[in-house]
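Title: Prediction job returns without error message
Component: structure pipeline
Severity: low
Priority: P3
Assignee: unassigned

Description:
Job completed but the reporter wants confirmation the result is attached to the right record. Sequence as submitted:
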Amino acid sequence: MSSLLKKLDSEHFIPLRNRVVMSAMSRGFATPDHHATDDMRAYYARRAKGGAGLILTEGTLIHKSGDGWNNAPYIASDAHAESWKPVVDAVHEAGGAIACQLWHCGRISHSDYTGDAPVSSTNQAAAGINRQNGKPYGEPRALDASEMPTIYGYYADAAKRAIGAGFDAIELHIGHGYLADQFLDSRVNDRTDEYGGSVENRCRFALELVAEILKHVPANRILARISPSRFMGGIYEWPDLDEMLDYFIPQLWKLGLRAIDVSCANSDYFETSGKIIRKIRPNWPGVIMGGASLTQEQAEAEIDAGYLDLVTWGRLFMANPDLANKIAKGEPWTPYEDAMREVLA
């Protein structure tokens, strides 16, 4: 049997029927009021019926201040959470598990979405054009230290709503240049207070956030997504990579977090996440998730070598809703095409 098809039975995370994970992918098919829809229910149910062990939802916004994407779903109110229940139920009926990815875009946004200025670690706008509205990214407002508990509260409230709606787990998105990563990344974080400067200070926001969530959700139902190395027109890494990893990863473990998703977005795994995982595995006896670009044979080798416990695929799940079943049957995988992003199928 392929190691991808073996059950996950770990004290550190929820039990799963196999190691095949559908990665979080922003799709933008929620209602104008940011509720989950019946089309979204059918979309996620297809992947569960296709054998996925775990499904990570698209980025789900915890508060309007974190919005930055057209028609993204929210979990910022009880009504939002209620709209997710049919999705969760459909995944469970098909034998799968589903985690809600909690998202705050920070400065990767615009007042078109947030109303007021976006918030961040900094008051410097991100470079480039926001593909969601065709405008330069908005000039953010640097959060005051006194505001951090409010932000953590948004995440905590969203996490409690997600668990209440039946999600098996939640994933804290603290990578990909979004809010928490804007504190971690010294290229972005230009603060001079206790949330900026040293490695310890730049990790403070993310660590305090994780500590707060652990008060409300059992540790084995929490994932944290990090992206110390990813592709952004070239390989993009935290400048003080080893020093950051040597401090941040053991601190996450000390807090009680037990599962991490090392994401590289649309990058070559071995040039990005795979390299990071080889650095952190000695300091992380818990669950590690990663993948994205791997073939079946490469994924099996990473599991067998003890680097990965769970393997993620994103775009290939758009092309192959039945990816896990194809692995079980030894069937070829349908290649991904960009046109697949335009429909929710």
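Comment from assignee: result matches the submitted record. The two ends are 30 Å apart (CA to CA).
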